[in-house]
Structure formats: C-alpha cells, structure tokens
Amino acid sequence: MIERSFFERDPLTCARELIGCELVWLGCAGVIVETEAYSAVDDEASHIFMRPSIRKFAEIHDPGTAYVYLNYGVHWLLNVLVKGGREDGFVLFRALEPTKGIEKMMERRGVTKIAHLCSGPGKLTQALGVDGRDNLRDLCVGGRRGFRQLATEPGRAAEVVADLRVGITRSAHHPWRFLARDSSFVSVGHGKVRASGKRSG
DNA sequence: ACACGGATACTA
DNA sequence: AGTATCCGTGTC
C-alpha cells in the first residue's frame, strides 16, 4: 500500500506520481492512467477553494482520505485528499486501465469492451462500486481499498503528459490533468480538450 | 446536440 | 423560497 506520507505533498505532484500506480478496490483493480489536480491555491475550479464545507473537510481529515461526491446528480466522483502544507487539495481519478475483477466491472457497467469500463471519472466509480458510503474512507490502511505502487524496471516507468482539465470553466487554463502517454484507456485523448472545457473534434 | 438529475452556494 | 452552477454519461 502507498503510505500516508505520499499524500503529504502538493496536489500536482501527487496527481502526476499517481499515474502508473494501481488503484485497488476490494476484488477489482486498475492502473491509474488519468488524474486531475485540484488545489486550495489559485484554483477556482476546486471545491476546497470554493466551498467552506470542503475547506473544513481538508482541515479536519488526514491526507489519504477519500472524498466522494455526486456530480450532476448522476455520477459519483472519487478524489483523495492531499495536504502539502500551504497547498492542500484533491486528486480526482478520471480513468483506469482495468487489471483485476474485470468480469465484476463489466457486470456493474453493463458493457463488455474493456476500454469502456473505466474511461471516465463516473465510469470508474460505477465499475469499482464506489459511492457516497466511501466518502471519508481512509485509503492508507488495510489492503482492501487503496493504492499500490507497481514494480517497474528503471526507465520503464509510465511516461506522463500534462493537459488541460476536462469539463471545467473556472481556472480552465491550468494544465493540471495528467495522462499516461499513449494510453487507450483515458477518457479524452491528449490535446483534445479546449480551454472552454468543451471537447473539440 | 441534448436529456438526465441532486447537492451546494448564493440571493432574497 | 428560488436560482445558477457544477470535476459526466449515454443516446440521439
């Protein structure tokens, strides 16, 4: 399991370094191929910046705590709290390359194409069975839900590229989305996001 | 291109 | 109270 000190850093560093790690959720798992960083500093898109209740959340909980909320009244989105001193924030998980429990994910998602199982923040939570009950869960204890660093040969670690974040209007210019280069399991391909937050093409 | 849909923050 | 907004997905 990735230890708590990993999350005691700024959101951009955490979001970037989580690419290539494995997200484990009970019997299911996948390699993280897409994340976004949301910061308490200079980021109007961040809940921690905009919402007093979420700022309080960050104050009273440990780094490594899950933040799960309902978006657009439809989809649960999974974040992890990080606390890098002045720069606290969240990392949003946007896409996984499924590795374990694929049958179960297909069952929950109702689709059979592996590339469609976890290629979006709402799809990912549906595939893993994440919902509001997982809010506040400590992801740094036990082996049932959390993160694993995959053994990679030197020089073979996942190549990470940065891009604009998806679907936001405020602070849309920050290149705070991170992707595993050339992964076919991401939600939207690299370079396909415009500053407006809408997709191009 | 558009429907679906609930929580939050803001205005009164 | 009502309104605007929001880190999306599936189907048209």
Please describe what this structure looks like.
The chain has 201 residues and is of the alpha+beta class. The protein contains five helices and eight strands, in the order αββααβββααβββ. Strands 1, 2, 3, 4, 5, 6, 7 and 8 form an eight-stranded antiparallel sheet that branches. The longest helix has 9 residues. The radius of gyration is 16 Å and the shape is globular. The C terminus is likely disordered. The structure holds a DNA duplex (12 and 12 nucleotides).
How is the secondary structure organized here?
Blueprint: H1 11-18, E1 22-25, E2 28-39, H2 47-50, H3 52-60, E3 66-71, E4 75-84, E5 87-100, H4 102-109, H5 121-128, E6 145-148, E7 160-163, E8 177-180
Antiparallel strand pairs: 1-2, 1-6, 2-5, 2-8, 3-4, 4-5, 7-8
Helix pairs in contact: 4-5
The protein binds a DNA duplex (12 and 12 nucleotides) through helix 3, strand 3, strand 4, strand 5 and helix 5.
